[in-house]
Amino acid sequence: MNGPDRIPLSEPSIQGAAWKYVRDCLDTGWVSSVGRYVSGFELAIARYTGSRRAVAGVNGTACLHTALRALGIGPGDAVAVPAMTFIATANAVAHCGAECVFVDCDPARFNLDPDALEDLLENRCRRRRGRLLTPSGAPLKAILPAHILGYPAAMARLLRIARRRGLLVIEDAAESIGSWIGGRHTGTLGDAGILSFNGNKIITCGGGGMVLAGDPALARRIKHLTQQAKSSGKEYIHDEIGFNYRMTNLSAALGLSQLELLPRFLRQRERIARWYGRRLGGVPVAPVGETIRWNRWLLSVQAASHAEQERLLKALLAAGCIARKLWQPLPWQKPYRSRAHAPAPNAERAYRTLINIPSSTSLTEAQTDRVAHILKTAALERALL
Fold this sequence. Notes:
alpha/beta, 14 strands, 11 helices, 14% strand
């Protein structure tokens, strides 16, 4: 169903100074990868997240690729990656020529499971000459937790596990702008982290991403790589193979206007979660305690079975309410099937039972009523069969 009755899954909310900032770029001609909005957006993101440095990029995947490369991940290395995340997380590792070792997710929030990671390190890897080797023989260099649907992963324990074994930690915080753990923003707890500003995120540049780095030297190297590794300000001299991963001034102008509205967007998403909670008898999400602040990027319901998931999805989509499954587990994806992977039963269960329901910042209370009514009616019909 298209038209005014359609309820999207997660659409941008363009308000505030967006037109003013973008028009300024157009009026002044600063529309490409140089301009005051790029540096302004980097500084504003660094201030908001508490990161010492922030480096803008063309999108989240490019930012993750650059961060991995700057931290020394390369051909022959291995990185522990969640079995349940968007494929871009794994692709960034593959772009470095490194191997993905998939680790199952936890059964509650579907983030990288510390217990499964411990099992990999203790029972499936081996030590040789001071290096931790994966089952394929590749040295494990890093772990790459992703904050699924914006909810923070169990970073305290994951960091302890990594530090004990000398592993780097790179956070895929693509979905989690506005999420915090113990007073620290996601993406700032490891060696580096990335944010995404894709069109379906809480704030958007239309595309765009940002690397968060606590080490200024690392940030400078990341910036250098995103600019084709150009080593001279006046001449086209390049000291290594870099990337054209720069964010445009136009994108940064939109992003800066969106960041100014982020506190309002987060408050609205809290209201949306409460509306759903009242209508559905409590949306089944993990509790948010004093140490966790969750941005509620996408809200989900969990079906009792795969058959019920299909039934509920069909009912929602037929009524014009856009809903989606989680991603297919990465070990099932064609580019990553060639290697033997450990079972990931929690990731499989999440894929076969979870449903992401409409969660846009602009969602109205009446629209949450409609989504909840469809879900409850479809569940009742199942009960009567």
